[in-house]
Amino acid sequence: MKTINSSVIILLISLFFSGITQGQNYQNIIEQHIKAIGGRESWDKIKTMRSEAMLKSNGAEIKLTFIQSDKKGMRQNISFMGMDGYSILTPTEGWNFMPFQGQTKPEPMTADEVKKGQDGLHLGDAFITYKELGKTLEYLGTDDMDGTECHKFKMIGKEGEETTFYMDAISFYIIKESQKINLNGKQIESSTLYSNYTRLPEGIVYPMAVGGGWGETIFTKIEINPKLEDSVFKLPK
User: Fold this and answer.
1) What is the C-alpha to C-alpha distance for residues 149 and 93, in angstroms, rounded to an integer?
2) DSSP SS3 for 222
3) pLDDT exceeding 70 applies to what percent of the chain?
4) DSSP tag of 161
5) What kind and span of H or E run contains 73?
6) Architecture in CATH of 6-233
7) What does the alpha-carbon distance between residue 221 and residue 54 come to, in Å, rounded to a whole number?
8) pLDDT, tens digit, for every residue of 71-109?
9) Would you say 143 and 152 are in contact if contact means Cβ atoms under 8 Å apart?
10) How far apart are CA 54 and CA 209, in angstroms?
């Protein structure tokens, strides 16, 4: 009968407890993040949201209004060049109307576009909703992002889509997320930067500045739990 070397046993035990410790540590990091952005209870109270912002891109200023109802619908109104457009998404359908891109009437989203947009219907932080959405999370250790030490996480969706999050190791705020997207048949990495985190009267902490390759979006007003009419998520007649 063969015996197992004692050093092998010690190594296996060490690896086992190392795995447990790493799991506990990254769960603690997530809880620190949720606490930093106002706490799970404050976020769970949010059922609707309306926000106003200004997008600055290539010297142009575009006025944006976002209207969201948790799991029911979201709408983005866009004012540019004296024209008003919009994008509407519900659990079953969606439409885009962009007159500044030459559209003369609303165009329905494809089934694939509707499917890919569903995660956006869930109000709440990604680290609060990921389990509900059937996603998994991997802790990738720490990384340096422009001189800021960050905890790095990879979130994987049900279809295999991956998003990488960079969380400030001191504030526990998300300062960057990146994902690979398909653009004209090519895979490119798209990154979003978050800053100017501000505590709202309702207790949540929200990034008032969001940047990326498209420009920078500055939020000027955020309303929590405003009353919304059902018609806001329906195609205007």
Assistant:
1) 41
2) strand
3) 89
4) -
5) strand 73-80
6) Clam (2.50)
7) 10
8) 999 999 999 989 999 999 999 999 999 998 989 999 999
9) yes
10) 10
Q: How many CA atoms lie within 13 A of 59 on its CB side?
A: 0
CA dist 232 and 109 (Å) reads 17
Q: Using an 8 Å Cβ cutoff, are 162 and 155 in contact?
A: yes
CB distance 37 to 173 below 8 Å: yes
Would you say how long the chain is, in residues? Answer: 237
**In 3D, which of 208, 170, 162 has the Cα closest to residue 189?**
162
Residue 40's contacts (CB-CB under 8 Å, 6 or more residues apart) are 34, 128
Beta-bridge partners for 57: 60
Angle at 150 between CA 146 and CA 156, to 5 degrees: 115
Give me the pLDDT at residue 6, please.
Answer: 52
Both tokens of residue 185?
Answer: 């048949």
Positive or negative torsion for Cα 116, 122, 125, 127: negative
Low pLDDT (below 50) residues in the chain? 1-4, 8-24
- Quick one: pLDDT at residue 10? 45
SS3 at position 101: helix
